[in-house]
Structures are given as structure tokens and as C-alpha cells.
Amino acid sequence: MIFEKIVNIICINTGLSPESISLDSSIDEDLEIDSIDAFEILSEIEDEFSIEVDEDAMSSFKTIRDIVDYVENAV
Facing residues of 63 across strands? Predict the structure, then answer.
């Protein structure tokens, strides 16, 4: 459920198809998400799950799995 919601947010902000995103997708290499898109995506994730992502955590996200794990632990 969390993964699907995060994928949906990414797709809305980037135009990527859901099929192109997996848990092991690299945020910058596979999905080519730049820092502006990443900020918007993380802002929407915060709103969707009513959490706050600290800056240290943001810089540690390398894959979609990293984001999903963080959200699962925060909710």
C-alpha cells in the first residue's frame, strides 16, 4: 500500500509509468529524478502520510525501497 502510493506520487510528478518503478529503482540513476522533483515528491509524501522527513534522511535516500522503509517506520 505504501509502495503503491509513493509510486503514484512519483508518476504524477515525473510522468514515469508505474511499471518503470520498482523497490530497487535508483532515484537518480534509474528514474533520473532531479533535486527539484525530489523535493516536490518528498513534500507530497509528507502530506500523504502526515509525516515529516528530516533533511539527513532525505540525503540518504538512494532507492525507492529507502523511502518506503522510512515511511513505514514513521507512520
Answer: 26
pLDDT at 67: 96
Mean pLDDT value across residues 19-40: 94
C-alpha cell at 63: 532507492
Q: Residue 37: which CATH number?
A: 1.10.1200.10
Q: Counting Cβ atoms within 10 Å, is residue 11 exposed (0-12), middle (13-18) or buried (19+)?
A: middle
Whole-model pTM? 0.91
Rg (C-alpha) for the chain, rounded Å, is 11
d(C-alpha 31, C-alpha 63), whole Å: 10
In angstroms, rounded to a whole number, what is the distance separating the alpha carbons of residues 67 and 71?
Answer: 6
Going by pLDDT thresholds of 50, 70 and 90, the confidence category of residue 30 is very high
Range of the domain at 58: 2-74
Cα–Cα distance measured from residue 7 to residue 64, given in angstroms and rounded to the nearest whole number? 9
